[in-house]
Write a structure and sequence with these properties.
The chain is α/β, with parallel strands linked by helices. 45% of the residues lie in helices and 21% in strands.
Length: 151
């Protein structure tokens, strides 16, 4: 494979994220990709973090371990999909938020040629409440961004 900068594919296990992997393989052919999963920082979860509700250290450790294991499983599932489509895939896990910021930071750290991610196509109130990760990545990154709409 020719030496090229990798493509960063944000993956959360959804059909939209799978469509992003598929589109990268279809349009850009065999090359190196990094399948990124962003795992929420449990300290930011209202009932676990700064809400004032005490959570035992042992319980928090168990939850953190489970979240990390789940993130790794999701990342590997995405990487397996990518490999099955002829891409040379590795995984990366970032913890923290907001999610868009972690994606932009990962792209910088890995000197990605492109960021690819799926769009959930939220509209109306859902868009206002949940925001748009893909829109924020496109707005804040100085790298090219491929937003894939699943059909």
């Amino acid at each position: 494979m020719a030496e090229k900068r990798p493509i960063l594919i944000a993956y959360d296990g959804s059909d939209c994220a799978a469509a992003a992997i598929d589109k990268v393989a279809e349009e850009l052919g065999p090359r190196e990709v990094i399948v990124l999963v962003v795992s929420e920082d449990l300290d930011r979860v209202p009932f676990l973090g700064t809400s004032g509700v005490p959570v035992e250290a042992e319980t928090m450790e168990l939850l953190t371990d489970a979240a990390q294991k789940g993130a790794q499983e999701i990342a590997e599932k995405g990487a397996e999909r990518a490999r099955g489509l002829g891409l040379e895939a590795t995984t990366a896990i970032y913890e923290g938020g907001p999610v868009w910021s972690a994606i932009v930071d990962a792209a910088e750290e890995h000197d990605a040629a492109l960021i690819a991610l799926g769009s959930r196509g939220l509209s109306g109130v859902k868009h206002v409440v949940l925001g748009s990760v893909s829109g924020a990545v496109a707005h804040h990154s100085h790298r090219s961004v491929l937003i894939v709409h699943s059909t």
